[in-house]
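EI: anyone free to look at a 634-residue chain?
SC: sure, send it
EI:
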Amino acid sequence: MFTQLKRPLSVLFLLVLALFLVACGGSDDTDSSETDADTSSDTTTEDTAAEDSASDSTETPSDGPATLTMWYHGAGNEVERNILLSIIEDFNASQSNWVVEIQDFPQESYNESIVAAALAGDLPDIIDVDGPVMPNWAWAGYMAPLELSAGALDGFLPGAIGTWDGQVYSVGLWDAAIGMFARRSVLEANGIRIPTLDQPWDLAEFDAALETLQATGDYEFALDVGMAWTGEWYPYAFSPLMQSFGGDIIDRSTYTTAEGAINGDEAVAFGEWWQSLFERGLVPGTSQDGADRDTGFIDGKYALQWNGNWAALAALDAFGDDMLFLPAPDFGNGGRIGAASWQFGVSSNSQNQEGANAFIEFAIQDEYLAAFSNGIGLVPATLSAAALTENYAPGGPLEVFFGLSNAQGTLRPPTPAYLSAALTFEKALADIANGADVVEALDAAADEINADIEANGGYGFDGSVVGPNIQNDAIATGEASAAPAPAPAETSGEAATVSMWYHGAGNEVERNILLSIVNDFNASQGSCVVEIQDFPQESYNESIVAAALAGDLPDIIDVDGPVMPNWAWAAPHGPPGTVRWRFRRLLARRYWHLGWPGLLCGPVGRRHRHVCPPLRARSQRHPHPHPGPTVGFG
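SC: here you go
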């Protein structure tokens, strides 16, 4: 019913394939957007709206609009393709500068086609790219950073935004989320607590639940994790379990090594537990039949199933109100599920990048995000789009998956090294499931991944610290949002909207922490709702100056310390005792140790000083236990 996730290939391997024109079988690209799972069905390229090659993208007829070529990976998926065609038709009709023409490919050959086109300098204008693959293509020079309007990606799930080297290169119209499929009656009959996002199962409780369910004798296996599916299913579905233990495929602090990440103590602990699932007969092994994976939970062979939202409606049809979609267990570093799906980007050799960006910005309107969700059943990329859908709107049967994606979604390592590392990870986990020595398998995986990174000069990383490792990110520290951000408040209603501009677009770790502060503040009172709009650092100062000239500054301004005196001199900010001081108190008392850049209140913020209650208690920072940057607002 759904297309299969295929294995990603390293750039070097793809280049060899393209140069020698060797046909590739069984090592195809990923598809976390639809099933993150493998099927054996063949697909055939359909007739497309464009017969011409990608080179046509450079031709601009003198008497008509320029042609924008677009390549798409889902040949044979009629529902998805028809929705995409409707967006293209609407875009073409909305303006007269560009006409988008689509050429679709079978998923099995799509990545190889992109690489071959890149070698020939003949890429299309608009590229369809799987989220975890994007950093490799951006690093290789296939793609250009997106140039969208300020605020175009506000409210998007983190997994739907593709960032590389501090810039956004791609954006998706959906995301996919995994949950633990269960039946309420089964858990209650066996005295097993029903977990929540706030209180997920821990390792001991989850393991005990599996043992209890297996001991009933009512099921062939207590849990189905999907061993019949291979390729990208492994890193998408299983690496979050390792990451919850505290291990990872690659050390995210530098992205230059796998040593200590895939073979550290935490990863070994995961590997030993993983192997025990098979040794104790709690899960099917690597020889699982594909049909059992597809219907085994519904048929009653499995008590629990680790599966994605693409399979949720069938389970609901079978079990109705008895059906539960539960969060991932927390094995010590936060409950985690995979994130990032197929996305759209712009090729670096496009002669019509302005038009390609215009199409992408047109396509990410809520009505189209909702159309994809209604059509293919996946998670809409924004909360406002979810409200327009049949299944993900408040109170909808699949609403829970938006919350799971928002709170537990973890990107596969966003590095060009991922394509090769994903294959290595898959082999290691399959070997461990089949009885290989855990330490030896993970050590070998670390060596293989490191050899690839070294052979490719670090893939653009120089060994400096670029972010937290998996044990120190927002999910591990509990600072990630546990629920979708609240809907914007109407200024004429009970709460005033307070706008805030932020300079760190693309820094997902920092932004998620800031979002958690904003969410805490919004929940702490009912007078104001802070809304964030983030900008790339390179263009942030210019955006502030332009807004100041237009008299349209946000209420809360993110400002670099040495720049602040100039801005204060040019446009004195609003008085104390308003929302900025309430927000400052929350930041200072609960998040002072993070060392944020300064934030100040713009002149426009004065309009809320009578709406938002002033700070009543004394506002001061906690003393720092160690030297470091301080936190403050202007």
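EI: Confidence is low (pLDDT under 50) at residues 1-61, 482-493, 571-634.
SC: 👍
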